[in-house]
Specification:
12 strands; 9 helices; binds zinc ion; TIM Barrel
Length: 277
């Protein structure tokens, strides 16, 4: 059985993520461990952790992922922003450990045109610091759509994994980001090439999650626009081809699609996704 779920809200409290996942027909999930647009983080209460964990067990849900704040930028030259990014990630990982989350997924950030080479040493140091201050829950780097300045191409991820050299540093690949970055997921040969690249870069064994999103923007457009499953440029056949590749078939699928009226992943999307596996 494949784990398929979506990003769900914890509005009202952490245990609401369970109901929200049941409602959309998911069997795994992703949440924000606080507001995605505010730096403020507080520990989950013991009561909500207990209720959440018993909900996970009762429903036999698979992995729980936490998505970090969108404000995080580990490549920032602004000391204050870098410090806030680091502190929020440590808090998210600590909260993650308490709810037995697989890991906290982050968009690494932007070098604002300065180039990856000018920030890579800072990234290695800050990631090592975050991992050093935490335990029991991993840090998961997500690939980007290749927007100008945004860090997260496969060679960049490979560089960071190698230099940080910590087994708790993992990878998440987003199908919409891959497509916008130029990987044509509609083509079997392009998928095979991608898998080979993942092997060559030693990323394949570190891959723990796929973000399953269709893509509104064109191939190689470098624009990060998620579409509902089957409603974007990748389409059902492309997504199906990719997620069922033998090297990827064990990976949980997390949808971050707009759903209806931008309410997020819904039953219709999860049902379509389950039909692909
Ligand atoms: Zn994503
Ligand atoms: Zn995205």
């Amino acid at each position: 059985m494949r784990y398929v779920g979506g990003h769900v809200s914890i509005s009202g409290g952490l245990p609401y993520a369970i109901d929200n996942t049941v409602k959309i027909g998911g069997n795994c999930l992703q949440i924000f461990a606080g507001s995605p647009r505010l730096w403020f983080r507080k520990p989950f209460t013991d009561v909500e952790v207990r209720e959440f964990l018993s909900g996970i067990e009762e429903n036999r849900f698979g992995p729980v992922f936490i998505h970090a704040l969108y404000l995080v930028n580990l490549a920032s030259s602004n000391i204050g922003l870098l410090e806030k990014s680091t502190t929020s990630l440590v808090a998210d990982i600590q909260n993650g450990a308490r709810i037995h989350s697989t890991g906290v997924i982050i968009h690494i950030g932007s070098h604002l045109g300065a180039g990856f080479d000018s920030v890579k040493d800072q990234l290695v140091a800050v990631i090592q610091r975050i991992l050093g201050e935490t335990q029991d829950c991993d840090l998961i780097l997500e690939n980007t759509a290749g927007q100008n300045g945004k860090i997260g191409s496969l060679p960049e991820l490979a560089h960071l994994l190698k230099k940080v050299n910590d087994p708790r540093l993992k990878i998440c690949l987003d199908t919409a980001h891959l497509f916008a970055a130029g990987v044509d997921l509609r083509s079997l040969s392009a998928i095979k090439e991608l898998v080979q690249e993942l092997k060559d870069l030693k990323l394949l064994d570190r891959l723990v999650c796929l973000h399953l999103n269709d893509c509104t923007s064109e191939l190689n457009s470098h624009r990060d626009l998620h579409a509902n499953i089957g409603e974007g440029k990748i389409g059902l056949e492309g997504l199906k081809l990719f997620i069922n590749r033998k090297e990827l078939i064990h990976l949980p699928l997390i949808l971050e699609v707009p759903g209806e009226n931008k309410q997020g992943p819904n039953l219709a999307n999860i049902t379509l996704a389950k039909g692909l596996v």
